[in-house]
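Before we proceed, please read the two lines closing this message. Let me know whether the structure tokens fit the sequence:

…
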Amino acid sequence: MTANETCGRIGLYPGTFDPITLGHADIIRRGAKLVDRLIVGVTTNPSKDPMFTPEERLDMVRAEVGRLGVTNVEVEGFNALLVKWAQKKQATVLIRGLRAVADFEYEFQMAGMNQQLDPAIETVFLMADVSLQPIASRLVKEIALFGGDISRFVSPEVRDLIAARVERIGRRGDY
């Protein structure tokens, strides 16, 4: 018996989660319904300037997943080619969240490349809830750095972590 037969369908939801937003949490909650086991993969992206370390993001995502109350979700860090990591985890589904057309163009290209690398791994796109579609981690950080209210975009716990980080590194702007 293979690991997939004993564990059922395994899905991966990769991202930097810097920080994890309510949109991410929505995709995790909904993605967990599509697979028997969902692994949320916290990774680094060389083109992004993270506010939190990989370890801090892992802790943040684990805490948020715990608050969601989903029992088939685990959180792991990874720093590898996504398809290679999926193969190692014996995952057959990649879950990706979409907010807008611009996301789709990038994700469509990535899905095509991943399909070329391993045709056995399917990519499933989930649209973020309409009320959560404009939320982007990059924008949440920018709003926080300029002293704006981010409470509609992240959980209270994540809001407090961001506020503490902004206090440490300093706010931007004149107002």
Q: What stands out?
A: The mean pLDDT is 91.
